[in-house]
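Dear all,

This email documents one entry for the complex benchmark we are building for the journal club exercise. For each entry we list the sequence lines for every component of the assembly. Then comes the predicted three-dimensional structure of the complex as a token string, followed by one or two observations. Please use this as the template for your own entries, and keep the labels exactly as they appear.
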Amino acid sequence: MREKATTLYLGPQHPGITGNMMVRLKVEGDTIVKATTEVGYLHRAFEKLQERRNWLQAFTLLCRFCVPEPDPVEESYARAVELLEGREVPERAKYIRVLMLELARMGAYMLWYGGQNGSLGLYTMGQWSVGDRNYILDLFEELTGGRVYHMYIWPGGVRRDLPEGFADKVLRTMDYFEKRLKDYDDLMFDNTIFQKRTQGIGIVPKEKAVEWGVVGPILRGCGIKSDIRIDDPYEVYDKLDFVVPTHEGGDIWSRALVRREEVRQSIRIIRQVIEKMPSGEIYNKIPNPHKWALPKGDAYARTEAVRGEVGMYIVSDGSTHPRRTHFRGAAYVHAITLLEKVLVGANVADVSAIMNSLGTCPPEIER
Amino acid sequence: MSFFDLKGTLKPLTALKQFGKKPHTISYPKVSKEAADRYRGFHYNDLEECIGCGNCSTICQNAAIDMIHLEGIEGKKGDSGLRPRIDHGRCCWCALCVEVCPTGSLSLTKDYNYVSEDPDSFLWTPGKDNPQGKEKISFFSTEETSLNVFQRVPMPELEGKERVKSFAEVVLGYSETEARAEASRCISCGLCTEVCPDHMHIPEYINAIASGNDADAVRIIYDNNPLPEMCGKVCTHRCEDVCAIASRGEAIAIQWLKRYATETAATADITHEIVNPEIREANGKTVGIVGAGPSGLTAAYYLALRGYDVTIYEANAKAGGATMYGIPKYRFPIDSLDKQIDYIQSIGVKINFNTKVGKDISFKEIYDNNDAVFMGVGFPDAWSLGVDGENAEGSIQAFRYLYMINSGEKVDIGDKVIVVGGGNVAIDAARVSRRMGAEVTILYRRRVADMPAAQDEIDGAEEEGVTIVPQAIPIKVIEDEKGHVKAVEYLKAEMVPDERGGRPRPVAIEGSNTIIEATSVMAAIGQKGDYSFLEKEFEDKIKIERGRFIVNEKQQTGDPKVFAGGDAVNRTADAISAIADGFRACKAIDEMLMTK
Amino acid sequence: MMKELKEHIIRRVKANFTEAEENNDFTYDRLDFTVKKEVVPSLLLFLKEEMGFKHLSHASCVDWLEEGELELVFILWSPKDKIKVFVRTRLDRDNPVMDNMDNIWPQLHTYEREFREMFGVQFTGLEAPDEFILEDWQGPPPFRRDFDTAAYAEKTFWHRPGREDAQDVRETIANRDGEDIPDFAKKYSR
């Protein structure tokens, strides 16, 4: 007998949901037959606000696009500006940027460890990983002066050079994480509950993935090797040795395995960066910011963030203020058109885990 | 996988080993972690170092920074007297305010803990309300990290060796690209305008240049200065001394930028076209002006714009006063002056050349035939050295020498010139003499650092091969048998600290007599006025004290109908002060005649 | 390599879309094509299906208020050839109508909803609820340049009292010296 459909409203203040958005679910029993993403809970019009700021002032708003991982946004804006202006960046600054980006990736994955497990009721993992994330925040604090919002990567380079003894501290922190990740495996990947709740759940079809705009770990979790750091290399990624992990399957489990491996690759990259970083300048200074005009034209720069491709499209009319800045976040695709498709046929109890696994992030949608 | 997976059930239990570990966090007693050395916490502002330029307030994209009056801090030259107050409820700790602070007075501290139920308590003044912040400064700017551009775009100049070959202009002027780049350094605070005697609208015209609108820059400049190209070339540019950027770098080249803007108008006609001055209908009133120097020309220009019938009486064949006859042509070419005079005449100012007041026309006649009179008569005479032999042939006033050279006369100075003095006139005479092929030595009573001449002029002279002998007091000009200068005898001096706290005084060292050969001696120790043109009947009203006219704040003398300005009035004795006097007098005359 | 690849793409595109205007001035991995709006769907489809530009990296809308036009920009990426192509077109700002293209890339559906709401672009055939991010919005499309966010904020919100004593540095100095800044110069004050 066909069951009568009911409508459920998941969010916007649901504890298992990432950020302020709602998914309207049409369910039959506990099987979802239709899912609709509803946003509109945190629109701050950052892009419009940036038009009222000059090219430098606009930079301070960027970190607010993404709390867990603000640095790729700063980096892509900086690089878009540099691309448009033809501004060179000193080599050392590029290495420092990569260091920042990889630390940010690790920090964001620590939050993901917590969120992914939390969505399955496995709370201990989150207490560990979010606690460990503080060691990364300590590094950020020492390097940039801010723990969460760094406002550090800006057009022309980075704001300050590494403080005395910082490189050693980074390496010690990496040592700690290498050891610590084994505990994570025991608690999470070897855990029957985690395996059973993630294997075969939330499948993204491989053959549709690229066309649907799937990027990042979600695409790699479908077995497709795609990483902007390799495909469209920026900064100094082409001088570094690392592996882009992929796993067939397209489910939460495959994506988790991809992420598990990526944390280890980040550690590998960070060690290389510390080793290879040249000495020298860190900043190709911009003119007086009040009178700094960019040439007419546009540019798009993108980075590989934890959720996949994030980018910044900027348009200049030749003045001191942006004509338009437009942020591209992976969740703009993942949390709407993709989520709505993947949720169909899923069990209500798995929605939070699927959303977390797809990297749902409403601030990327509404900005 | 079987339903019961032993490994997958037991492995997570290894988490229990964490019970044996020391916790990451310190639970009790609660101690706040000390912030990192670079932490971006609450602001601190060094109130003494701060100059109130407000650049922090301008860059703040959260509108969190107000500039306010603080008790005990008065505005003065180079300091607006305002200080930043920050609404920490709006602040996002981006620290751009720190990065753009030209003095480096503003920084962030390690303080970050603050909890209050009262949102108003987040509004406070760094430095005043957290004096303890000085000890906790963490995020600050240095010359390297600052977003201010501290290096000036260098001005292209002729090489010293090239210069002495001719009277070609030494300073070549900025190209368009150079001017835009230099103008872009300005932070538009306006501290400079206070020091400019004429209060020119400096941030506005610099901003116009920076944004590529030179015509607007020219219009803004002509709002209160009709001789800006002259100022662009020879101004004493004291505005640059208080430039906010100069607190840690090189001042914006305000003078050179003005020069750049005015030179974009190549002729008087183009100037007229760009400035497009609004000339009011004739109001039937007349003003007579004595002297076509900067002050007289300025008063004339702005009075003519306001509809007055203005006539200038000038003793010489050309207008410009000291800027025509006193300043050498390699600093201020005659074409440039002519262009500006032509423009001033083009708006209706009449100039009667070769008309010396007191000889060709009486002052009384001007006084009686006009509704108001302005005197910009300058200092036409020079002080003499007061030493033996100074009337020998070959001994000449430097001021007189420059006059003759600028008038196109030939002067025989021989090949060894001694210039006595340390002001701009001394330097000018020395550099002109170099161009005439002579070896030149400057004798100055005090140290080089004490010379009143502008530093770039002193540097220029040295680059051109002028020898400067400081701490040298001439005591005698030695004549040869024909009564011609043969040598100068001087005493070396030592600097003695002044007991009353003034600057050190030179005291001659007995027995240090030195003789230096010379074919010509030029005294350049100052000029003075000549007021013999004033008839007796004016003596009571128009007061002269210590060689200068006494005027009120409106440039008005004791005779309400007579105004005065320029070197014969002010102590700064430069072109821009004269222009300011002329502009002030114009406004006062206008006010007086229009309210009658 | 990159040069030949770019020329190849231009040749292929021009062979099928004669009026497409290319911009090959970029020193990096980028080509631009500007076309009439009617051609956009078929060009996008051609690039996706025939030329390997499988991935839609980004799409954007830019308001050229002074020129009376809205610009749509599509940024495509070829995973095979590792190159970006920008496809751009201009719409009449007073009547911005465009064909729905979410059948080419499903995620264009979201972009179109956003451009409709924020810029007022109408996509013929777009099936989606009227509201996307905004709720009960009666005003003009807010991302258009003539929508003044500061004026809107002034009108809608209020200032906390206690900051009225703020001074303007330039004005303070000018007043102290009796400097009259002429009106036409004030736009250059800061």
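Observations: Chain C touches chain A through 34 residues (CB under 8 Å). The mean pLDDT of chain C is 92.
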